[in-house]
Amino acid sequence: MKNNITLKTIAHQLGISESTVSRVLNGKASKYRISKKTEEIILKTAKELNFTPNPLARSLRLNKTNTIGLVIPDISNPFFSSIARNVEQEARKLGYSIILCDTEEDTDLEKESLELLELRKVDGLIISPVGQTFNYIKRIYNNGMPIVIIDRYFPDLDIPYVTSDNYKGAFEAISYLIDNGHRSIACIQGLTHTSPNNERVRGYREALLNYHLPVDEALIVGDSFGEQNGYLETKLLLKNEKNITAIFSVSNLISLGALRAIYEEGLRVPEDISIISFDDQPYSDYLATPMTTVTQKNKEMGQISIKLLINQIESKIRFSSKCVILPTKLIKRKSVKLKNETGNTEDISTFNSYGSDHN
Amino acid sequence: MKNNITLKTIAHQLGISESTVSRVLNGKASKYRISKKTEEIILKTAKELNFTPNPLARSLRLNKTNTIGLVIPDISNPFFSSIARNVEQEARKLGYSIILCDTEEDTDLEKESLELLELRKVDGLIISPVGQTFNYIKRIYNNGMPIVIIDRYFPDLDIPYVTSDNYKGAFEAISYLIDNGHRSIACIQGLTHTSPNNERVRGYREALLNYHLPVDEALIVGDSFGEQNGYLETKLLLKNEKNITAIFSVSNLISLGALRAIYEEGLRVPEDISIISFDDQPYSDYLATPMTTVTQKNKEMGQISIKLLINQIESKIRFSSKCVILPTKLIKRKSVKLKNETGNTEDISTFNSYGSDHN
DNA sequence: TAAAGTTGCACAATTGTTTGTGCTAATTTT
DNA sequence: AAAATTAGCACAAACAATTGTGCAACTTTA
User: Fold this and answer.
1) Domains in chain B: ranges and CATH
2) Which of A35, A108, A324, B350 is the Cys-Cys partner for A162 at CB 3.0 to 4.6 Å?
3) Against a cut of 0.85, is the pTM above it?
4) What are the start-end ranges of the E strands in chain B?
C-alpha cells in the first residue's frame, strides 16, 4: 500500500550500506569519497524507485521539522486570513510547512496551542497573541524557540515583532475628523491591554490634545475586536446625551457592528453620523456608504514576519528584538461628513499635522 | 536548552527498562502485568519531570502523525477561511493538528502540496480542490490516504465529499428573480468545469426552462471566482445590446467586482440592475444595497468534513463514497427589484417552485 | 519437594535517517 | 618490495518511541 521505499530498500538492492546511500543522496559523496560509479548507480536507482526520505525519521535525527506554527486569534477574520495566506506562501517557498492554530481569542487555548506546537518540535512560531499575558510565550522563547510576534506585540517583551504604526494611523484618522469639523468623536475600542488597541486609542487621545480638544473618557468605550461589541457600544453611544458626530472604530468587525446599530436606529452615514474604521477590506468601497478606513499592509506583514522568523531559525542568531513597524494609510471615502458640507464654519487651525511628511 | 526528557531519562532514573515505562504511560500496565508499585513510581516521576512523549518518534514507530492536511484554493477568501476555522477547531478537539496549504487556485501548486503532505505522512486530507483535474488526488487516495473533498467535488471520483446543494440554491435564486418579473438575467460564472460552478449554472438554466424562458448562452459569461472576473464581465454585460435586468453572480468575490463595474457605470442597484449572489458574508447586509444572497452552511461544512475524515482514519473502513450535501438558503435583502416595484405586470404562473418543500 | 504455573519485568528488534569512526584494499611512495 | 597513503565504503550508534518474546524469580499445586 504505502510508499515504503527507504534507504534500506536501495541499499539492499545494490548491496551497498545505507550510510553510503544517505551520503550520496545528501550530496556528501565527495566529502566522504564515494566513487563516481557508486554515486551514479545510487542516484539512478533512487530516481527509478522514486525515493524520498521519510521526514519523520529525518526530523527525529536532525531535530528539525521544517515546520512552523502559525497561531492566530481568528482565522475567519479577513485581516488574519490575509496574513495567513502570505505567511503560508512565503513559508512554502522557503521549504517550510505551516501548522495552523486558531486560538479563538482565548488565552487558555493559546497557551495550549503553544505547548502543543512546542511538543511537535516546530522550528519556529509566528504568533498573533490574544495579548492578555505573555509569560508562557516568554518561557517558550527562552527555551530556545525562534518566535516572531505579529500585530499584537508586548512592549515589555524582548521578542521580534512586526506590526503597523497604529498610533500614527489613528492620529491621522482623528486629525482628519477634526479637520472636517468634528468635535464629539467616540472611540470604540477592541480588546484592551493589547498593543494595537492601546496605540490606536493613544493616537485618538493625542490627536484630540494636539488640537486642544478635551478627551472625554466616556466616549472611549468597548472591549473587544468583534462585531457584537461594535453593535452594543454604538447602540449605547447613540442613546446617550452627548451628541457625537463621529465614531472611530478600532477594527473592521467593530465597524460592521456599528453599522448594524446605526442603520437599526434609522440614521444615515455620514449625514447623521460619521465613521472611520481601522482595517481596509475588499468590500469597504461597496458599503452603503463607502467606508473611510486606515489600511494596513497585511501582505507585507505576513511576508516580513516569516522572513524574520526563518532568519532566526537558520542563522541561529538572535537579534536583540528586531522589530518592524509598517506605515498605514488613510483611505478617504464617503463615511466622513466633510467640513464644507457640515455648515460648521468654526475655524480650526490645522496645527502641526503629525507625520504628514512620513511615508 | 530543549526539553529533553525521554523515556530513557525516566528509565535510568528509576533503574527500570524503557519498555516498562512506555507501557505504563500508555496505560498498558495491567496488560503486561506491571506491578502497582512500579506503575505508581513511574507515573509519579513522569509527572514530576513533566514528561511528554516525542511525537516524531511516536509517529515514526506507529506510522501515525495525528496531523491532517487542509488544502484550499485561497485562505483569504472568507468562504474558505470560515471553513478552515471550523475544521481547525474540530480537529484540535479530536487530537489532530492542521497543516495548511494554500494552492492559490493553481493546479500545479495543488499537486505539489498534496505530494508534500503525503510525504509528511499526514493521516488524512481535506481538500477543496482547484477542480480542473483529479488524477493525482485519485492516486493518493488509492495509495490508502483517507480523504474528504469539500465544496468542489468531482462527480466521477469515488471519494467522500461534502458540499452545498448548489443546484437547488441557484434554482431558487433564479426562480426568485423570475417571480419578480426579471426575464433577461445574466449569469457570471466562476471557474468552469468545477462542480459548484456547473451545478449553479445548471440551476440557472433549469430555472429558466422551468418557466419556459429561453436560455441565452451569450448571457452566461466569466471563468473565475475572483473579483476581477466579476468586474470585467459586468462591464461587458452592461455595454452590450441585451437589456439585462439582473445578474446572478456565482461567488462573493464576483459580486464585489460586479458592484465595482455597476457603480463605475453610474448605475444603481436594484433600480437599474438587480443582483443576486452566492455566498453570504458578514458585510452583505451593509452594502450600498444590502445584497440578496444564497447562503451556505460553512460551519457545518467544516465540521462534517473533519468528522467524516476522522471516521475514515480511525475506523479504517472506507464507505463507498459517503457524501453529504447541505441545503442552502436564500436570504432576501434589497438587491433585487421586486415585481410590485417594476411596473412589469406580465403575469407569470409560478409553476412548481422546485424544492420549496425541502429544508 | 519437585513440577507447574504465574508474576514482573528486561532485552532486543523495529521505525528511517544521519554521522563519527574505522577497516580493508588499492595505490603511491621510498 | 615493504611502507605509507589514500580511496571507498561498512559498521554501529543515535534520535525516541513501541512491542513481541523470553527469562528469572516467585508462588502454587500435587
Assistant:
1) 7-53 (1.10.260.40), 65-164+298-326 (3.40.50.2300), 167-296+329-358 (3.40.50.2300)
2) A324
3) yes
4) 67-72, 97-102, 124-127, 147-150, 161-164, 185-188, 220-221, 246-249, 274-278, 292-295, 324-326, 329-331
